[in-house]
Design goal:
The complex is a heterodimer of chains A (about 350) and B (about 350). With about 350 residues, chain A is of the alpha+beta class. Chain A has ten helices and 17 strands. In chain A, β10 and β11 form a beta hairpin. Classes of the chains: A alpha+beta (about 350), B alpha+beta (about 350). At the A-B interface, β4, β5 and α6 of A face loops of B.
Chain lengths: ~350, ~350
Amino acid sequence: MIDLIKKLSEAFGPAGREEETARLIRREVEQYVDETFTDVLGNLYAVRKGAGAKIMVAAHMDEIGVIVTFIEEKGFLRFSNVGGVSPFVLLGQRVVFADGTTGTVAMEKLDDIKKLAFDKMYIDIGASSREEASTRVKVGDMAVYQSQVSEAGNRIIGKAMDDRAGCVILIKALQELKNTNNTVYAVFTTQEEVGLRGARTASYRIDPDVALALDVTLVGDTPEPLYPMDVTLGRGPAIKVKDTSVICHPRLKGALVELAEKNNIPYQLEVLVAGGTDAGSIHLSREGVPSGVISVPCRHIHTPGEMIDLLDLENAVRLLVAFLEEPVDLEKIFPCQAG
Amino acid sequence: MLLRRLAEAPGVSGDEGEVRAILREEVEGRAEEIFCDAMGNLYARKGKGKKPRVMLVAHMDEVGLIVTGYEKSGLLRIDKVGGIDNRVLISKPVVVGKDRVPGVIGAKAIHLQKPAERKKAIPLENIFVDIGARSQDEAEKMAKPGDYVSFTAKTVDIGDNCLCGKAFDDRAGCAVLVDVLKEDYDLELTAVFTVQEEVGLRGAGVAAYTVQPDLALVVESTSASDVAGTKEQGHVTKLGGGPAITLMDSSYIAPQTMVNFLVKIAEKLAVPYQFRHLATASTDAGRISQSLEGIMTGVISVPCRYIHSPACIISQEDWHNTVRLVKGVLNAIAEGGLPT
């Protein structure tokens, strides 16, 4: 599991440029599914065919990053953010482009650090002229944090746990999934960080009976946390009740809770007060899709040092496998949906 | 020139009728099928049934104001339709409603403003449209709540082959589409003139659903900020630098294959081009690319200084080069298929 996390966390995949991550994931799942394919937005589908309900499970491949908007005469790169990047977290960090070109993020002279903003910052790739810089980087190229995975006890630190952790859960579940009558559409989605975009077109394509998203969620167990969250690292996967993009289908949420209890899987209930996930666009697809979310508690989200707990991950895999193996009785769970 | 006439027509979001009428007349005879949908989008299609199916998109609407009520004095209360800087509004001539009642956007004169007031933009609640009415009764006979208020500006020649006027965003794109329709391409082409882009890309989603294209190309007008007070890295695009290719904005990330495709065609045809150096704002591409199962979408823009004002400037050379690039894209697809 750690090897897989390491491989995916360190892979390059800012929103809109997820190809490398998709390639790695495809290799992991190919032999465990009936077919894999991609679409116009770059979503990767891995399908296990069955006669029962059509279940879509989404985990997003993309991570936050930066995009080069301008190359200065002296070779410095001006940039804009791709997704929710904090200028304060970014300052002083190393960033890396798809081809391995590395730069460090610096700032112009400021009289007040509170005024730090992307237009006062630049990436230095060690070039001394526009010509030299242009041989390595082009306007429109994206970069991500350069960050290697570290193990910290039973916990893992690295970039892009949001949402490679979700990708790992989905890969593992496909590998461990034995008998299921359901048709499982595992979708590794794109462009979640910039507006839940890949999931929107994927859910339209699949038209699922029911959907789950796998993503990270904030925790409230750190000093003066950003938000008062009743989710703790290491206490099990979180079953989402609501965030700012979706109110999870209460019966689906209930079914997940029941499954966790039946199988003695630790879980927590999650109300995320700031943030959304792929379920936000999936549940509004077509005529509506009953949707739920299994979340991985994660500290320091959107920094190069996102931290997750291995046990939470393992338990999330167990919960997902249990869900996918169970027949989904649409008439019982979603009486309004059936027929 | 069609662009001059298109730019002068009032067509604030939701009130695109006049622009649509001009376009309908212009595309007559250049397309086999011309129709509208419930939102008011106008479609002109040729080569029906051929493969692949390509959609060109330009929005008809422009930013403006809408009447919300009256002051006792006879001034009209207004709200904005789309994104306009309050500082741009002041003292501009406008027309109100279907009858084009002339008016002006009034505000307190500088010598009547308190020192604190001079320091900041006048808030919208203190900005009114004055149609010369002396009382609410008189104003009620001249304008109704819901009437649209549009900037009024003649399109004039300025400098070296440039045009100055209003609403080049996105009548410039509309005019490109009409010009492109003059020629035939070996594919199914639908030119769509969309509504309500400025208030949230609303027409485009419906259009994408209606056409279900294999590829969509949005022809827009975008900020050229190569003006005083902006450092070079802040220039979104440069006037005269050629059509701008979008890499990313608030609602859309260009697929790398699309960027490479557009660049290759521009270079082959020796059309000057530039990248749009800004990753915010949005266009119809945001909605279209996320429609149905996902649609391969590109954006090409005509650079425009002082965008969203009644005194925009575009270069006719940029406009002509945009036409060349769009035609080049269609020919490339007809000959070599979709970008992969």
